[in-house]
Every structure is written in C-alpha cells, then in structure tokens.
Amino acid sequence: MAAKKSPSPAKTPKARKRRWYNQLWDVYGMTRRHDPAVTWWMLLAFVGVVAVAAVLGYVFGAIWYGLVLGVPTATLVALTIMGRRAEKAAYGQIEGQPGASVAALGTLRRGWTIEKEPVAVDPRTQDLVFRAVGRPGVVLISEGPAARVGRLLENERKRTTRLLPNVPVHLIQLGNEEGQTPLLKLTRTVQRQKGKLTAAESAEVAKRLKALGTARPPIPKGIDPTRARPDRKGMRGR
C-alpha cells in the first residue's frame, strides 16, 4: 500500500510592495487628519496655476502648450504645499512631548551625533537638556519653560566647556516662548550653525563626550525619547 504524501505547508503570500503613490496617499491621509484645510489649499494652488498657464498660453497664442506646461507645474506646487503642511502636522504630533527635540533632530543629515537620552535632567521640574555634536561643535537643546531651563542649560555648557575647552558650544532653548526656538524650526536652526570642526574632529568630540560622560541624573518616569518620533515621510512630503 503506497504511503500517503504529507500535505505540503501552505505558502505564505508575499507582501505586496508599496508603491510611491501608496506612500503619497498615506502622507495625505495623515496630513488631512491633523489639517483638514490641506485639501482646499492644494486644489486652490492647482487651479490657480493652471488658470495662469492657460491665460498666458491664450495671450501668446499657444493655449494647449500653456496647459501642457501648466498641469505638471500645478501638480508640483500642490504636492509642495502638502509636503510643507505634512511636515507641520508631523511635528505637531510630538510637540510638547519629552524627547521631542531628539525626534526632530533625527531628520538631520549625516555628520551629526545625537544623544538619545538627556545629558541633564532637573528631577524636580523634569526639564531636560539634550546634546547633538556636529561640525559646528556641541549643540545643547533644552526642553522646558524659558524661566527655568536657563540655569540647567548654562550648567551643562560649563561642564562641556571644562571637558572640551576648545570646542564651540551652542545653546538652544526649545519652545514657543520669547527667545525660544519652535520645534518646527529646530532642525533648520541647528543646521545654520557655522562649521568650526572637521568631520574627523567632530567624530572625536562625540566619542570623547560619550566616553567621559559623568553619572547623569535618572530620567524622569514616563520619559522615553525613542518613542517620540515624527513621520519622516510626511516631513519630506513623499
């Protein structure tokens, strides 16, 4: 009697590859949830650009040529508007959360070393200071009210200067009060700092700070900077 063949295991269906238009739709959906007016702004921009192209084409006797150029241009303008508003919506999701600065700085280009945990913490007020190291030197970013974080930020600057007296140290207060930098502008503010170090020097500074890091205060309960992440696709607009 012939032995029965064991049934072959069911093949796991392959996951469908997501196309660029699927990602674009996801970004649009995320943006629309937080900014319902984005649809109208995109339509207004699209119709406005097409109308201008049509008028110019009519004036110069080439209306179809104007439309051929106008429609792609209008699409690009509409997508640019969506990208800008998607970036704002993505930052809006994490604004005010502990560790929001780390999440925002995660979109920096290569050449930066970002500390995932705060380098200074006030256990009483739960104000934080985070650190980024790049060619401009050391950048210290505080999270907390302007009236409180100044001393915490200055103390960390002094500690860093004692360890690395020849390395520039930049101070940034994150927040929406006077003299502070909003989360939406944090990355651009950091990138605008002038480079003082070479890439090798920057890497050495980051390595030394990590190796010489003294005992830090415990992170307040409930703070997990690795969980506060913006939608990077939304920030890039695609």
Describe this structure in words.
By secondary structure, the chain is an alpha+beta fold. Strands 1, 2, 3, 4 and 5 form a five-stranded mixed beta sheet that branches. The longest helix is centred in the first third of the chain and has 32 residues, at 63-94. Helix 1 (20-34) crosses helix 3 (63-94) and helix 2 runs antiparallel to helix 3. The protein has helices at residues 20-34, 38-59, 63-94, 100-105, 146-163, 183-191, 199-212, 232-236, and strands spanning 113-114, 120-121, 128-134, 137-143, 169-174. Strand 4, helix 5 (146-163) and strand 5 (169-174) form a beta-alpha-beta unit. The chain has two domains: 20-94, no CATH class; 100-229, no CATH class. The protein is built from eight helices and five strands; from the N terminus they run ααααββββαβααα. 28% of the residues are buried.
